[in-house]
Specification:
Structural class: mainly alpha
Order of helices and strands: HHHH
Shape: elongated
Largest sheet: none
Helix content: 55-70%
Distance between the termini: 14 Å
Number of strands: 0
Number of helices: 4
Low-confidence stretches: none
Radius of gyration: 15 Å
Strand content: under 5%
Number of domains: 1
Length: about 130
């Protein structure tokens, strides 16, 4: 039962990355006023420099795929799921660090909660599996 709940949580965490992909491509706004990933570290912090939206969106899809694969592996009891969680968590955290604009205002809307979840996932997977 614990494995099933953990796998569902990991998969859902991955699906949240798809929401950020839509935000990055300006398909929709997660919240009014969020401009993520505009003015981010990866775009050179230059206003109007929005070329980084597509690479950030691709990185979000890669992260979502990694977490989904890890969750499915956990459901089917493949021991490699741990390494998928570790690698995808690090990749996802780097994504949000690079896509951060450096402003601490509304930091939770810019992926900080996801980074905290990534760290918690790494610790929990290490301790419990």
């Amino acid at each position: 039962m614990f494995e099933t709940i953990s796998a569902i949580f990991i998969i859902l965490h991955g699906l949240v990355h798809l929401l950020y992909m839509g935000q990055s491509l300006r398909k929709f706004e997660l919240q009014q006023g969020i401009t993520w990933p505009d003015n981010s570290w990866v775009s050179g912090k230059q206003p109007g420099n929005d070329w980084a939206r597509v690479p950030v969106a691709v990185m979000c899809v890669i992260s979502a795929s990694g977490f989904a694969a890890a969750g499915i592996m956990l459901l089917y009891e493949f021991s490699l799921f741990k390494y998928f969680v570790y690698c995808t968590s690090v990749f996802s955290s780097l994504l949000y660090l690079l896509a951060w604009d450096g402003v601490k205002n509304k930091i939770a809307d810019k992926g900080a909660v996801g980074v905290v979840i990534n760290v918690a996932l790494i610790i929990c997977i290490y301790v419990f599996y």
